[in-house]
Amino acid sequence: MSCIPSANTMESTLANVLVSLGDIKSALTIYESLHHWEEMICCYNLLQLRHLSVEVIREQLAVKETPKLYCLLGDATDEVEHYHTAWKLSGERSARAMKSLGMFHYKKKEYAESIPYFQRSLEINSIQIDLWNRLGYAALQCGDKMDVACSAYNRYVSLEPDDFQGWNNLARAYLDRGEKQRTYNALVEAVRTSNMDNWKVIENLMRVAVDTKHFECALRSYSQLLDIKPKHYDGQVLTILVSAILDMISSTNEQTAPNDQTQLQDSADNDASSENPAKGDQHVQESDQNTDSNIPKNAGETEDDLINVQDIDLNLSEEDESTEQSDPRAPKRDQTPAQSRHLAKSLLTNALRLFGRLTSVILNESELWYLYAQLNQARDNAADALELRKTLKYVTHAHACLMRDERSVKEIEGRRRIGEVCALWSGLVGELAGISPPLGDRRGLLVTARMSLRSSLVGMERQTQVGGEGERDEEVERVRECLGKVEAMLSVS
Keyword Repeat: yes or no (predicted)? Predict the structure, then answer.
């Protein structure tokens, strides 16, 4: 028995290939010669020759009426009664008729109306992968049908586990239901299946990881994000990360017994500033997934049903009662003190590396430099003169960025940050001034600090006189106190 396919089979395969390449007219010629009327109808639809589709369908209906023919007629004419005719003709067992009715509303963005038809179609035939996807999307757009969306997307990703958009939209549905841990798990799969090249999905994972206290994943995701967008800055995420890491280090230090002072190692030789920053902006062009089938499955449908990535906006906070692990500074229950110290060490090292990359390309964010200084103070050798100098450099950068922005002295938040930076600055120069033997020009450090603090104080006092708000006086007094400490050190130096 010959294994060579017949000529008709080979011609049909050739026509399918031509369709996949976009040569619809050539494919149509082959289908006509083979009398493959269903494929002919789909080609006419793709060529916007729907009147010819209607002619072919009516010719076939004259031979024999079938539910599928009436569904195709409805696709060609946009007359919904043909779908109902197909449904009745099938004895109310045509999954295609229900799907077509659902798609009729779906394409008009009448998502709530499309859901019952999709569900009925899937009850009859549950192996309709694209329909699970559209059911989930329709439910997601309704806003109040998240249970349906979660169920549909769960079924969809079980059938198409490598579709990152399905995982990402499943995460969105879980998030709207308040299930943050499941949101995190779904986004991990979304990033895995997106081949690490879709920055929106990676950003979603980063923000949810912070919100669910998966700090290692958050740091890793931020680094992956910088590979795609080297200048991406998210101050909210960085602030929470730094606060959590510092609290974790403080907590593990308190738990360490006096006879077991295994201090945190920050791999000082691997300083974040020695990391090779990404050079130049990398431009990533997102490509749409090609979900178009050949013929005849989706030939009569538009491309409006492709599911787009859903951006996830989170209300990040340092304390969140809905998160399973309520206290970010507390080690996990099954961790020993040594494991907690190791985790804190790892987080600190990775965070310093991340800040090294960020500060190599982002120079004018005062918050970034201030957070970097706080992290550097958490090193084991933070009290060494060289490390103090390094931390002081970060603080001076933060102060310079603040004072270049006129809004800093006008807005309460900016004035609060000025007070924090000045307090840290005065403390650092105090530590450097007390080091013996002295390193470098001790008096020069104090003079520079005095000039900068005095400049900050003058600007804040001027704004206080204009605004007359008593709440702002606290920050003025804070800066004045810092300036007094520096002047006192100068008087005895």
Answer: yes
Give this prediction's pTM: 0.77
Residues 6+ apart with CB under 8 A from 192: none
Query: How many independent structural domains does the chain possess?
Result: 3
Residue 380 and residue 467 in one domain: yes
How do residues 24-78 score in pLDDT, each as one tens digit?
999 999 999 999 998 999 999 899 999 999 999 999 999 999 999 999 999 999 9
Which residue among 64, 97, 118 closes a domain?
64
In a domain, residue 77? The reply is: no
Residues 475 and 375 in one domain: yes
Q: Which domain holds residue 368?
A: 363-493
For residue 94, is it within any domain? no
